[in-house]
Specification:
This protein is α/β, with parallel strands linked by helices and 559 residues long. Helix content is 31%, strand content 23%. It is built from 18 helices and 26 strands. The protein has a nine-stranded mixed β-sheet with strand order 2-1-11-10-12-13-14-15-16, sandwiched between helices. The longest helix has 17 residues. It comes from Trinickia dabaoshanensis.
């Protein structure tokens, strides 16, 4: 038949580049009167929100933004940040959502690396923006004076920057926004953490963004008109594509400048929140707060709250705890290079018959690829052969398909390495179970090799999380003369609870093989990123600087 298709080319009538920008246009057309944004006193519907994004696109083009230019954003989860995820690409530009918790030097590097022409900044970060402007004099700064922001701000001391609302007022609410010429065109640029060198710029395309948003809808089973609370920073993988997914479902964006557990629970109750996302550490903070307000929590009504956990491997203990509180947890897995989560642990009916501990252990696995991601596999990192699906053999976790980045900006060598042999290499070590579900055992750099045995730090962490006094834990390798390296556990305890190193070792003995036992336990605060990930490289640095200081060692050697 192929020889008879020459007269069947793509046409404007039967092919359009995929883009999540279409989702907000439809939300405004079909559900224009429905609530779209909640932020303190601000409540806007989808029709008005769509008009504001078109104003933003129009205004950006009027100041010289062209297709392919980069517009950087330094904002918390405010209405303006949500609008930027549509308005910037509507101008044909690329959105670079920056982590506002980074130091100015790191931000300057990113702005120069991507040659950003405009910076949209929240007034809370005006002092930082002044430094960025001084280092990048070509940068045009537009500042949003959010009424919910702490403190008062004066534009007089901001060197004549343009006020965001004034900027929008100069735009056209009926602007015929620019569709991508090709769905492979870039829509967003996100920078990796750069813990082992300069951060890399991850370039994402319209096709992947559109399909990532639909994957959230399909695999999280997101219904029409969800009420979503922005506990996850929008600068983190574009909020795991949830801003675009909410437009597809005509849901409600309940904005949140920062995670404050008491405020989060307040909003969950008053706004009748149905969905939220966050790393395990954030979920633990919320569970702790709910425990102190159980009466109020249960009085909010019977509407279910669905939580998507990602960013780090959650413990089965956390899953059990969330379920007890009436929260429906789902576990997603991915990286910046895969638009955030691109795999999810789909629950199976037969798991309902399992005891809570066994069911939680299965749900804490990383699971299977999103429906719109072609493949997720555990393979030998050199031969690329799939490892046996036995739940024991460790290989590298790899992705392929629509939900993979275009590549790293101006870094072809790193791009080629990441996509070697037709797969995206995550750097995570995992096993595959007979049911096809994958489970991470460690990052390749975090695996502990003790006396020739490979030890998963996650296995030890999961055991420690089962102790009621443990709030947060991270396990890293500590140098040892006899074994080469051994596990050292850093532990944060729950407020008002105490536990000794010997008690934790006794607890672990019933759950771990002897060679996996932690050799030392250190009680101190854990360093975390702005998204709640524990920074193990900082813990390794602490051990290098203070190898034995303040380390509580068990009275009996675990090996």
């Amino acid at each position: 038949m192929s020889d008879r298709q020459a007269d069947l080319p793509r046409r404007d009538a039967n092919f359009a580049a995929l883009t999540p920008l279409d989702y907000i246009a439809r939300a405004a057309q079909v559900h224009g009167d429905r609530l779209a944004v909640v932020h303190g006193p601000v409540r806007r519907n989808w029709r008005d929100t769509y008009a504001r994004t078109r104003r933003l696109a129009s205004a950006l083009m009027r100041v010289g933004i062209e297709r392919g230019d980069v517009v950087a954003v330094l904002m918390p989860n405010t209405p303006a940040m949500v609008e930027a995820h549509f308005g910037v690409p509507m101008a044909g530009a690329v959105l670079a959502a920056l982590n506002y918790r980074l130091d100015p030097a790191s931000l300057v590097y990113m702005l120069e690396h991507c040659a950003a022409k405009v910076l949209l900044v929240d007034a809370e970060f005006a002092a930082c923006a002044l430094e960025l402007e001084a280092a990048c004099p070509h940068l045009r700064v537009i500042v949003d004076t959010d009424p919910v922001a702490p403190g008062a701000f004066s534009l007089d001391r901001m060197r004549g920057w343009t006020n965001y609302e004034d900027f929008l007022a100069g735009g056209d609410p009926h602007f015929a926004w620019l569709r991508p010429l090709d769905e492979w065109d870039a829509i967003a640029l996100n920078y990796t953490s750069g813990t082992t060198g300069k951060p890399k710029g991850v370039v994402l395309h319209h096709r992947g963004a559109a399909l990532s948003a639909l994957s959230i809808v399909l695999d999280w089973d997101m219904p029409m008109h969800p009420v979503y609370l922005w506990t996850l920073p929008l600068f983190h993988c574009n909020g795991w594509s949830c801003a675009w997914a909410l437009a597809a479902r005509a849901g409600v964006n309940v904005c949140l400048r920062r995670v404050d557990a008491a405020l989060v629970v307040d909003l969950m109750c008053t706004e009748r929140v149905t969905h939220y996302c966050g790393a395990p550490i954030v979920q633990t903070l919320l569970a702790d707060e709910i425990d102190t307000r159980l009466g109020e929590w249960h009085a909010r009504g019977a509407r279910s709250v669905h939580a998507l956990l990602a960013g780090a491997a959650p413990s089965p203990t956390l899953f059990k705890r969330l379920e007890t509180l009436g929260i429906v947890p789902s576990h997603g897995y991915g990286l910046t290079e895969t638009y955030g989560p691109a795999a999810i642990c789909v629950p199976r009916d037969e798991w309902d018959a399992l005891d809570p501990a066994e069911r939680a252990a299965k749900r804490a696995r990383q699971g299977v690829a999103y429906q719109l991601q072609l493949g997720l596999s555990v393979r030998h990192p050199e031969t690329l052969e799939p490892v046996p699906a036995d739940g024991t053999t460790i290989g590298e976790l790899m992705f392929r398909g629509n939900l993979c980045m275009k590549g790293y900006l101006s870094n072809g060598e790193a791009t080629d390495k990441a996509f070697a042999h037709g797969w995206f290499h995550t750097g995570d070590l995992a096993v595959q179970w007979p049911d096809g579900y994958v489970q991470i055992k460690d990052r390749s750099k975090d695996i502990i090799i003790s006396g020739g045995e490979n030890i998963s730090s996650i296995d030890i962490e999961n055991a420690l999380y089962q102790h009621p006094a443990v709030s947060a834990v991270a396990v890293v390798a500590m140098a040892d003369e006899k074994w080469g390296e051994v596990p050292c556990a850093f532990v944060e305890t729950r407020s008002g609870m105490r536990v000794s190193a010997d008690e934790l070792i006794a607890h672990c003995r019933t759950r771990l093989a002897g060679f996996k036992m932690p050799k030392a336990i250190r009680f101190e605060p854990l360093p975390k990123t702005s998204t709640g990930k524990i920074q193990k490289h900082e813990l390794r640095a602490r051990l290098t600087a203070r190898p034995r200081e303040d380390v509580a060692e068990p009275s009996v050697s675990p090996q």
